Amino acid sequence: MSVSERIAHRVGRDFGDRAAEALEALALAETGNQDVERVHAALVLMAEGSVERLWQAVELSLVDWRDVLMAGGLGPADWPEVLEREFGSVG
């Protein structure tokens, strides 16, 4: 599963030389029936630049992806605004 351009940009910024590993982790995440970008964004926010925390967040997504949305701050109704503020606008 590929990530959007704005998620990939943030991964590069947050994870630096471990960005490839971070992208690998995101590809394994469970996204349920949700917008994939939303779940990926929540995972990146939860990780705060730590690949180890990202892997833990991905493990949580395999148990219940809804917990990832809440922990990453993208569960409430204002999630589109949070996504744009944290990752920039689409395009």
Q: Describe the largest sheet.
A: none
Mean pLDDT: 94
| β-strand amount | under 5%
Number of strand segments: 0
Overall 3D form: globular
Question: How many individual domains?
Answer: 1
Instruction: Compute the number of helices.
Output: 5
- Straight-line distance between termini: 19 Å
Spans of at least 5 consecutive residues with low confidence: none
Order of helices and strands: HHHHH
Task: Compile the SSE list and pairings.
Elements: H1 5-15, H2 19-27, H3 36-47, H4 51-71, H5 79-87
Helix pairs in contact: 1-2, 1-3, 2-4, 3-4
How would you describe this structure to a colleague?
- Helix content is 68%, strand content 0%.
- The chain has helices at residues 5-15, 19-27, 36-47, 51-71, 79-87.
- The chain has 91 residues and is mainly alpha-helical.
- It is built from five helices and no strands.
- The chain has one domain.
- Helix 2 (19-27) packs across helix 4 (51-71).
Summarize the structure.
The protein is an all-alpha fold and 91 residues long. It contains five helices and no strands.
